[in-house]
Each structure stands twice: as structure tokens, then as C-alpha cells.
Amino acid sequence: MRIEQSGQICGATVHGVDLSAELTPQMVTDIRSAWLKHRVLAFADQSMSDDDLERFTLAMGGFGDDPFFDPIPGRENIAAILREADEASPLFAENWHSDWSFLERPPAGTCLMAIDIPPIGGDTLFADQISAFAALPEERKDHLRSLTAIHSARGAYAPDGAYGEDDEGRSMAIRPDESAMATQKHPLVQRHPENGEEALFSCVGYIIGIEGMEDAEAFSFLMELAAWQSDDRFIYRHKWQPDMLVLWDNRSVLHKATGGYEGHRRELHRTTIAAAA
Ligand code: SIN
């Protein structure tokens, strides 16, 4: 196995591994430690099936919950991130987020497997939140450590949310629900459970407030923080290729989808990796 760093703030490509075959325990250990170090791993030239994707996800930590998506037919734990060539609905996942951060135990990671990759555009952006936190002045770090964020899926998946009942013409199997109104508190700064590093755990996609702060103040605070979190110096831009699998760590990066592939179909199969026990 050979790891090639992206040359950006994080991200690496793994060579010399065939993910359509059973991984040895040593390979699983090596891939997991590269994942924790580089935060985003890409595996190029893979010829994987959905069975292979499931087996890989189990090896990396097991399946996490996937609320608000219907799985693809015949599978319980694989969802399709899909946009048809003629689709006009707003892009899915265009805001910075950490997957399902509104859950009590958000998933450790996410796998995305290329099914249909457009010839242009459709990059996924990652923002390194360990580096973004580390680069802050000490006083600012202390203040952020003292704050608790209120997460919710309501803006996205409630019946009146962005992917709610009025979101017509979308090809993805999104299942909006009243349960999206629930809230969940998480510290704004979290220590990574596996590598011990501190990271900002804040995203405009799913945070609706800060405990003890007026809404207007919290909104401008979060917007200012979001600008820092997504500063160019913290970004890894991932360019997709056919037959590629990408694995990222939701505890140390935020991510967002980008467009630029109008007139082309894009499909990826996604699994989430459960929080570490
Ligand atoms: C996602 O947030 O799961 C999708 C990212 C992408 O489509 O690039």
C-alpha cells in the first residue's frame, strides 16, 4: 500500500489496494490510520460492487444510521447521491456540513463510491477543521471551547425544509419527516475520539443556534466562524474519477458538493460509518 498526499491541507490517494477483495486485518489497520492522519482518502481504479462497498464500510467501523434517505433497492445501508442530467432542483449538499451532525452520535465517517461521474465539475470540497481550529489565537480557542451548539435537521429535512415536501423534481430518494424538528446539543469544539486532536464541530448546514446566545447574535457569530472554517487555506478540493471510492472523517472535516456539470448525470453510492464505540 502506498499513500500519495494531495499536496493540499489534507487528503491523500491510496495506491496498491484492491477493495473488491477481502482486506487483511493489517490492511484495515493501515487504511484506518491513514484515514485518521489524512482525513480524506481516495482509492482510484477500483472496480467495486455494492457488496464490496458494504464490506469495506463494515471493516472501517460498521454502518451508521441514515435518516431521511431511502436506501437504494435491495440494500439497507446504501443511499444514492444522484442528480439526473436534466435536473433543475437546487444542488444537494451545497452547504458545508458534517454528515448527520444533528444525531446524538453522529457518524465517524462516510464512504462515497463513484457510479456515474460527469466529465466536468462535481468536485467535493473538504474543509480541515483540526487545522482551522489549530490556527486560531489561544484566547479565541478558549472562548470556542466554552460554547455548545444546537444542531437540527429542520432546515433541510423537515416537511417545510429545503428538501421537504415542496422540493419537487429531485431524483434523490429523500424522505422529509417531522422528526427533523428535533434538536441535539454538541460542544462546538470536540476532541477527536481516535487521535485526540481538537476540531471545530460547527456547520451552517445543521446548526440552528448557540446555547445561551440570542438568535441574531448566534447567527452572525456562526457566519463569521463559517468564513474562517472554509478559508481557502483549509480546503482540499477532491476531483472525482470513474471507479473511485472516497472515505472521509466527519469528526475532522466539513464537506460540500459543487456543481458545474449541467447536462450531465452524476451518481455516487454512499454509506455512513458508525461512531466509534
Ligand atoms: C454528500 O454530502 O454526501 C455529497 C457530496 C457530493 O455530492 O459531492
List key phrases describing it.
277 residues, alpha+beta, 3-stranded antiparallel beta sheet, binds succinic acid
Describe the secondary-structure layout.
Layout: E1 2-5, E2 12-15, H1 25-38, E3 40-43, H2 50-60, E4 79-83, E5 109-116, E6 124-128, H3 129-134, H4 138-145, E7 148-152, H5 154-157, E8 183-187, E9 189-191, E10 198-200, E11 207-210, H6 215-229, E12 235-238, E13 245-249, E14 253-257, E15 266-273
Parallel strand pairs: 2-3
Antiparallel strand pairs: 1-2, 3-13, 4-15, 5-13, 5-15, 6-12, 6-14, 7-8, 7-11, 9-10
The structure holds succinic acid.
Q: Describe it for me?
A:
- By secondary structure, the chain is α+β, with helices and mostly antiparallel strands.
- Helix content is 21%, strand content 26%.
- The protein contains six helices and 15 strands.
- It has a seven-stranded mixed beta sheet. Strands 12-6-14 form a three-stranded antiparallel beta sheet.
- α1 links the parallel β2 and β3.
- It starts with a strand and ends with a strand.
- The chain binds succinic acid.
- The site of succinic acid has 6 residues, from β14.
**How many DSSP helices?**
6
The biggest sheet, with number of strands, parallel, antiparallel or mixed sense and barrel status, is: 7 strands, mixed
What do the pLDDT scores average to? Answer: 97
User: Which blocks of ≥5 consecutive residues have pLDDT under 50?
Assistant: none
Q: What is the strand arrangement across the widest sheet?
A: 1-2-3-13-5-15-4
**Terminal Cα span:** 27 Å
Bound molecules: succinic acid
Overall, the morphology is globular
Number of strands: 15
Q: Report the structural category.
A: alpha+beta
Rg from C-alpha positions? 18 Å
Spell the H/E element sequence.
Answer: EEHEHEEEHHEHEEEEHEEEE
Q: Specify the helix fraction band.
A: 10-25%
Q: In percent terms, what proportion of residues is strand?
A: 25-35%
